[in-house]
Amino acid sequence: MSTIQTVSGPIDSSELGRTLVHEHVFILNTEHKENYLTDWDEEQQITDAVAKLTELKEIGIDSIMDPTVLGLGRYIPRIKRIAEQIDLNVVVATGLYTYNDVPFQFEYRGPGTLVEMPEPLTEMFVKDITEGIANTGVRAGILKCAIEHQGLTPGVERVMRAVGQAHVQTGAPITVHTNPAAGTGLIAQQVLKEEGVDLSKVIIGHCGDSNDIDYLCKVADNGSMLGMDRFGLDVFNPTGERITTIIELVRRGYVDKITLAHDANCFIDYFSPEHKHAIAPNWNYTHISKDVIPALLDGGVTEADINTILVTNPRRHFE
To answer: What angle do CA 233, 22, 287 make, to 5 degrees?
Structure first.
């Protein structure tokens, strides 16, 4: 057993329960909100989030991991207000989300830059995990980085190595946004391994966008868990094909490498709510519980397998 940091304080890993490993609460850039979302109603949005997360708890999910970091609009005071009103564990992240360059706040500071100094990103990430985020008293429980089809750009590599270094110093597990069509999960594993990361503590995110079983098995055989974590985003891979792929992975003996989520949110400033629903009508927190799990069971996955995927695997990610 291990201690896991949540927004509401530390819990024992045995209390994690059924867990969705990749769900955002808000994806909301503060600069964008303050300048352009003139009709933003903070209280209404918090009320709506409480209702959605309460429903998630009521249908049997006990915890979510929220990998919203710098670059995605992390704002812990809002998340704290929501967590105080729900009976759901929320584990938040530290890290940085970029597909290309580091933000200008770091462009000229760090190893090999204009201001030569130890990597400030590593220091930030470690502080978020060991001391807390922005004087909120909330400690990050996981680390997050990304590598998209652009591949290992200098900025992406710098962030990824800082995440790896923070993992080595703190033991916090890692989740990585990847593009399986470009094979970037394997690149992430190689870089993180070079930094001394225990790959069994890494979830390679968005593996569920792919039905390439050989690729998925390579990622799993390297030690990491597979993030089958975009259920409802049929624009990237239809639900039926995602389910078929999981059934085949279970058949091949990889049930202990599978994790589930939607990559959903209560609010995202990429789209209007109307556009979001039109693009992905099933992209919400309840799709897995209401639709996916019954379909997996119908396909031969057992209740014990579901327990492994939703309870044992996320718990092992921390232990």
So the answer is: 45
Q: What's the pLDDT tens digit per position in 19-49?
A: 999 999 999 999 999 999 999 999 999 999 9
**317 annotated as a binding-site residue:** no
pTM, full prediction: 0.97
Q: What would the DSSP string read from start to end of 68-115?
A: --BTTT--HHHHHHHHTT-SSEEEEEEEB--SSPPPHHHHTBSTTSSB
Tokens of 18: 């059924």
User: Is 127 a known ligand-binding residue?
Assistant: no
Give the CA count within 13 Å in the CB-facing half-sphere of 58. Answer: 7
Domain range 3-318, CATH architecture: Alpha-Beta Barrel (3.20)
Tokens coding 11:
């819990």
Is position 24 annotated in a ligand binding site? yes
- Better pLDDT: 273 or 176: 176
